[in-house]
Specification:
This is Bifunctional salicylyl-CoA 5-hydroxylase/oxidoreductase. InterPro entries: Aldolase_TIM (IPR013785), FAD-bd (IPR002938), FAD/NAD-bd_sf (IPR036188), OxRdtase_FMN_N (IPR001155), YqjM-like (IPR044152). It is an enzyme of class 1 (oxidoreductase). The structure is a single chain. It is built from 25 helices and 28 strands. The chain is α/β, with parallel strands linked by helices. The strands form 6 sheets. It has an 8-stranded parallel β-barrel with strand order 19-20-21-24-25-26-27-28, surrounded by 7 helices. Strand 17 and strand 18 form a beta hairpin. The longest helix is centred in the middle third of the chain and has 31 residues.
C-alpha cells in the first residue's frame, strides 16, 4: 500500500507512524511545505485520554513524549485584582517543536519519507498514484477547497481576534486573566509548556483575545508582530512579571469553525483541522488530530478494504468530534460575550468560566475541588446541603420553591377533539405536579378552534374548556401544595390544521382541514401545507381579542402563571421572524415593525391578567437558518417584552422554518438564555436538552439562567425532581415529597452485588 500524507503537523505525522508500524511494507511519504524546525504556535496540551491511546498504539512515542511533558493541576482566574484558584484539573503540555521532533525521529526510524520545504502535489494527482491520500493540511486545507463539492465544507468565522505569543518563563498553572481597557475587554489564556531547567525559566504559551471592535479600537489592526507583542505585554504586565512576549510568525486571527458534510472522497480522507476545528479555549486541536490518526489507523487495520475503512473512520469519529465542537462553540461564545459577565460576584464569575463548555459541571467540579465549589455556593447564599436547583425563585408575587419547570409539551390528546382537556391531562399534569417541580406548564393552549395545531390540541375558547382546566388546577393546588401551574397561550398560525404528531408530524389532515392565517401568505412546507391567508388589520384586532378572552378564562380557571407563546413558528412567532414576515405595512419590515403585533397582544393580555400573577413570553432566539432571527434580534425582543412587563423570558430556538439546521446537543439552547439574562439582567427560563440535575445545578449556580425547563426527562420520569433530590441526599423545603409518597423517598434496596472480602490471607 502506498500512502501519501499532505501536511507534516502532529496529526499527519502520527498517522504515518501508526500506519507504518502496523505494516512495515507500506510505502509512506509525507509532504510538508515548511522546514523541519518551522512551526506556528508554541505549546500543545494533550489529555490523559489521548495519551492513553498513544501509549497503547506506540509505547516508544509515548515514552519520548512523557519525558517532555509539563504537568499541573491548577487553574487561576484573575479578574478585577482578585485571583481565584481551582485545583484538581490535570493538564499535560509540551512544546510544539519538541512534539514534532519526536514524531520526525520516529518517522525516520521507521523508514517514512519526509519531504520538507516541498509543496505536495494536488490531492487528485496523488490519488491516482497512491492507494491512500491523507489530507492533514490544516484549517486552510487546499485539498478541502479543491474538492469542496465532495466534502461540502461549512466555515464560520467568529467575532474575536486572537494572537499566539510566548513568555520565557513557566506559569505554575493554567491562567485566565481579564483586563478591562479603555478600548474594551481583553482576555489572556496562558499555560506552561517547557519546564525550568537549571537557570532557565521555562516557557509558556500566551494567547491574547478580544472582540473585533476592541481590536480595531486599540489600533491592533495596524500593528506588526513586535508592536502587537509589546501592546499585549503592557496590558498584562503583572501576569508576566514585567517580562516581554515574543512571537513566532504570529498574527491576529479570527477563529474559524470548520465542519464538513463528508470527510472522504474516493481514496482521499481529511484529518485534523482539515476536517474539523475546535476553539483553542478547550485545548483540543492537536488532541483531535492525534485521535483521528489513531482511529484511521485502526479502521484501516480492521476493515477489508480502504473504502470501508474510511467509512468506518468517519462513523467512529464524527460523533466524538461533533460533541467536542459543541463544547468548543459554547466556550468560544462565552468568551465572545465575556463583557456581560464582568459584574458577576467573583466566585460565580470563576465558576461560570470553568463550566462554560458544559463539559465541566457542578458535580464534576465538586469532585475536583470541593472547597472551591463550597465557596461558590456560600457566595451565592446557598444553605449548606442545598443543591442550587432547590433554591426558591420569585416571579412577580409568585414564589417557586425550586428552579425546575416542566416544559410545555403538546400532548394532542383533547378528550373530544374539540379542545377540551380530559382525564389524560388531569393525570399527565397532576403526576408531574406531584413529582416535585416548582412550576408545571400546560401544552400550548389554543385561543380559537382555527388556532389549533391538530384536532387533538386543547383550547381555552369555550366555557367547557375553562371548567375542565379548573379541574386540573384544583387538583394541583390541593394534592401538590406548593407546586405552581402555568398555562401557555398560543395560536398555530401557518402550522395548523395538521395530523396528530404520531400520525404524521406537520402533515395536513386527510380531510376536514380548516383555513390557516399568518402574517404573510407563506406555507410552512410549500407543496405540502396549505398557503395561509395574510391577516388584515381588522383580523388582527379579532385575534387580539381571542387572546384576551382566553387569558380571562385562564385566570378564572386558577392558573398561577400565563406564558404567551411567541416561538416555534406559530402565529406570533411568525410576526417576529424575517423569514416568515414579509409584510410591508406597520406590522412588518424592521424588528420594531415585526414586534408590533406580538407586543399589542402581550399588552392586551397583561391588562386583563391579574396583576399579582406573573406573565412570561417564550421566544425562538434563533431560527437556525440564514436570514433569520439573529442573536442581537433575540436580545432586542427580550428587552421589548421585559419593558412591557414580562416577568421572565422563556428562551427556546428554532422550529420556525422546516429547513433549519439546529446545533443539537446537551443544553444546546442555553447559551441564548444566558446571553439575554446577562446582557439585560432580566430573568430567563432555559430550555433545550437539559438532561440532568447536574446540568440544572451548573446553569443556575453559574448565573446563566434562573429556571430550567425540562421536557423529555419528565416524560421519562414524572417524579424527576423528587428523584434528583433523593440522588443528591437532599430532603429540604425545595423538594417535599407528597405525604402519600414519603415511604418511597429513599432509593429502593437491591440485591447485594459485592462479594465478601477475605478475612484472612495465609502466606
Amino acid at each position: 500500500m502506498r500512502v501519501a500524507v499532505i501536511g507534516g503537523g502532529p496529526g499527519g505525522l502520527y498517522a504515518a507512524v501508526l500506519l507504518k508500524r502496523l505494516d512495515p511494507a507500506r510505502e509512506i511519504t509525507v509532504w510538508e511545505r515548511n522546514a523541519p524546525e518551522d512551526t506556528f504556535g508554541f505549546g500543545v496540551v494533550l489529555s490523559d485520554e489521548t495519551l492513553g491511546g498513544i501509549e497503547h498504539a506506540d509505547p516508544e512515542v509515548y515514552r519520548a513524549l512523557q519525558a517532555e511533558f509539563v504537568r499541573w493541576d491548577d487553574i487561576d482566574i484573575v479578574h478585577r485584582g482578585r485571583t481565584l484558584t481551582s485545583g484538581g484539573h490535570g493538564f499535560a503540555a509540551l512544546g510544539r517543536r519538541r512534539l514534532l521532533a519526536v514524531l520526525h525521529r520516529r518517522c525516520r526510524d521507521l523508514g517514512i519519507e519526509l519531504r520538507f520545504r516541498t509543496e505536495a502535489p494536488p490531492a487528485a494527482e496523488l490519488a491516482r498514484a497512491y492507494d491512500l491520500v491523507i489530507a492533514a493540511d490544516g484549517v486552510h486545507s487546499a485539498t478541502r477547497t479543491a474538492h469542496a463539492d465532495a466534502f461540502r465544507p461549512r466555515l464560520t468565522t467568529h467575532h474575536c481576534r486572537y494572537i499566539w505569543l510566548a513568555a520565557d518563563f513557566a506559569f505554575d498553572s493554567f491562567r485566565f486573566e481579564i483586563a478591562e481597557t479603555e478600548h474594551g475587554v481583553v482576555q489572556l489564556h496562558a499555560y506552561p509548556f517547557d519546564r525550568p531547567e537549571g537557570p532557565a525559566d521555562g516557557a509558556s504559551t500566551v494567547i491574547v483575545e478580544m472582540r473585533e471592535e476592541v481590536w480595531r479600537s486599540a489600533g491592533l489592526d495596524r500593528c506588526d508582530e513586535r508592536e502587537s507583542a509589546e501592546w499585549c505585554a503592557k496590558v498584562f504586565t503583572d501576569a508576566l512579571r514585567g517580562r516581554p512576549l515574543r512571537g513566532n510568525n504570529s498574527s491576529w486571527t479570527a477563529f474559524r469553525t470548520v465542519v464538513n458534510d463528508r470527510w472522504s472522497h474516493g481514496n482521499t480522507v481529511l484529518l485534523g483541522d482539515a476536517a474539523h476545528t475546535a476553539h483553542f479555549s478547550i485545548g483540543s486541536g492537536t488532541k483531535l488530530a492525534v485521535e483521528d490518526a489513531l482511529a484511521l489507523a485502526a479502521c484501516l487495520e480492521e476493515q477489508p478494504d480502504t473504502a470501508r475503512a474510511l467509512a468506518a473512520y468517519e462513523e467512529e469519529r464524527r460523533p466524538v468530534v461533533a460533541s467536542t465542537q459543541r463544547a468548543a462553540r459554547a466556550s468560544l461564545a462565552w468568551f465572545e460575550e465575556l463583557a456581560t459577565y464582568l459584574d458577576q460576584p467573583p466566585h460565580q464569575f470563576a465558576f461560570n468560566l470553568l463550566t462554560r463548555s458544559r463539559r465541566v459541571t457542578h458535580d464534576n467540579l465538586r469532585l475536583r475541588d470541593p472547597g472551591f465549589v463550597a465557596a461558590v455556593e456560600d457566595e451565592a447564599g446557598t444553605p449548606p446541603g442545598t443543591p442550587p436547583m432547590f433554591l426558591p425563585f420569585r416571579l412577580g408575587e409568585l414564589t417557586l420553591r425550586n428552579r425546575v419547570v416542566v416544559s410545555p409539551m403538546d400532548m394532542y390528546s383533547a378528550a373530544d377533539n374539540n379542545g377540551t382537556p380530559g382525564d389524560f391531562h388531569l393525570v399527565h399534569l397532576g403526576a408531574r405536579a406531584l413529582g416535585g417541580a416548582g412550576l408545571v406548564m400546560t401544552e400550548m393552549v389554543c385561543v380559537s378552534p382555527e388556532g389549533r395545531i391538530t384536532p387533538g390540541c386543547t383550547g381555552l375558547y369555550a366555557p367547557e374548556h375553562e371548567t375542565a382546566w379548573r379541574r386540573v388546577t384544583d387538583f394541583v393546588h390541593t394534592s401538590a401544595p406548593g407546586t405552581a401551574i402555568g398555562v401557555q397561550l398560543g395560536h398555530s398560525g401557518r402550522k395548523g390544521s395538521t395530523r396528530l404528531m404520531w400520525d404524521g408530524i406537520d402533515q395536513p389532515l386527510p380531510e376536514g382541514n380548516w383555513p390557516l392565517v399568518a402574517p404573510s401568505a407563506l406555507p410552512y412546507r410549500p407543496g405540502v401545507n396549505q398557503t395561509p391567508h395574510a391577516l388584515t388589520e381588522p383580523e388582527l384586532a379579532t385575534l387580539r381579542e381571542q387572546f384576551v378572552r382566553a387569558a380571562e378564562s385562564a385566570a378564572r380557571a386558577g392558573f398561577d402563571l400565563l406564558e404567551l407563546h411567541c416561538a416555534h413558528g406559530y402565529l406570533l412567532s411568525g410576526f417576529l421572524s424575517p423569514l416568515t414576515n414579509h409584510r410591508t405595512d406597520a406590522y412588518g419590515g424592521d424588528l420594531t415593525g415585526r414586534l408590533r403585533f406580538p407586543l399589542e397582544v402581550f399588552d392586551a393580555v397583561r391588562a386583563v391578567w391579574p396583576a399579582g400573577r406573573p406573565m412570561t413570553v417564550r421566544i425562538s432566539a434563533t431560527d437556525w437558518a440564514d436570514g433569520g432571527t439573529t442573536a442581537a434580534d433575540a436580545v432586542a425582543m427580550a428587552q421589548a417584552f421585559a419593558a412591557h412587563g414580562a416577568d421572565a423570558i422563556d428562551v427556546s430556538t428554532g422550529q420556525v422554518v422546516p429547513d433549519e439546521r439546529p446545533d443539537f446537543g446537551r443544553s444546546y439552547q442555553t447559551p441564548f438564555a444566558d446571553r439575554i439574562r446577562n446582557a439585560l439582567g432580566v430573568p430567563v427560563i432555559a430550555v433545550g436538552a437539559i438532561s440532568s440535575w447536574d446540568d440544572v445545578n451548573s446553569l443556575v449556580l453559574a448565573g446563566r439562567t434562573d429556571l430550567c425547563a425540562l421536557a423529555r426527562p419528565h416524560l421519562y420520569d414524572p417524579h424527576w425532581t423528587l428523584h434528583a433530590a433523593a440522588e443528591q441526599g437532599y430532603a429540604g423545603p425545595g423538594a417535599p415529597w407528597p405525604l402519600p409518597y414519603q415511604a418511597g423517598s429513599r432509593t429502593p434496596p437491591t440485591g447485594r452485588l459485592d462479594a465478601p472480602k477475605p478475612r484472612l490471607t495465609l502466606r
